[in-house]
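wait is this the right file?? whatever heres the structure
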């Protein structure tokens, strides 16, 4: 299992399997968030399979699944809520980890400086600089509220 730390409380990973759960526990994670819908996976990687293994190992498990067509403010709000409620550190996963990094970036716009968010994500191996203007706009909107 390969993960990338975005903060002391939140890391992202490519698709995990039932066999990865012991490594996730050994790495010190306390909770898992699935951001990948079942229709993108084979049955052995479906949410129910991963969730059952995670719960059996004593981890918390939550899902906030989305793809490019269903990503929006509601998914950002759900992820933000989960990051606050779940024990940490949290491991969020999707196909490559990028989707979980994107939702983290939007959740933190206005909390962490946008260039720092993007640099952190770059250091983790994901290129999301194309989101700079959207993140800046969201940060400004949050500052006004």
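ok assuming it is, sequence goes like this
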């Amino acid at each position: 299992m390969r993960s990338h730390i975005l903060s002391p409380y939140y890391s992202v990973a490519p698709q995990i399997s039932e066999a990865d759960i012991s490594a996730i526990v050994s790495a010190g994670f306390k909770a898992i968030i699935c951001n990948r819908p079942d229709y993108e996976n084979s049955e052995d990687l479906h949410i129910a399979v991963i969730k059952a293994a995670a719960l059996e190992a004593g981890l918390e498990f939550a899902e906030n699944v989305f793809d490019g067509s269903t990503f929006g403010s509601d998914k950002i709000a759900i992820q933000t809520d989960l990051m606050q409620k779940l024990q940490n550190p949290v491991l969020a996963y999707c196909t490559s980890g990028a989707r979980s990094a994107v939702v983290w970036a939007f959740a933190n716009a206005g909390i962490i400086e946008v260039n720092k968010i993007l640099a952190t994500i770059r250091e983790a191996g994901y290129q999301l600089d194309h989101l700079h203007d959207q993140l800046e706009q969201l940060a400004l909107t949050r500052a006004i509220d």
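The chain has six helices and five strands. so i think its the right one actually
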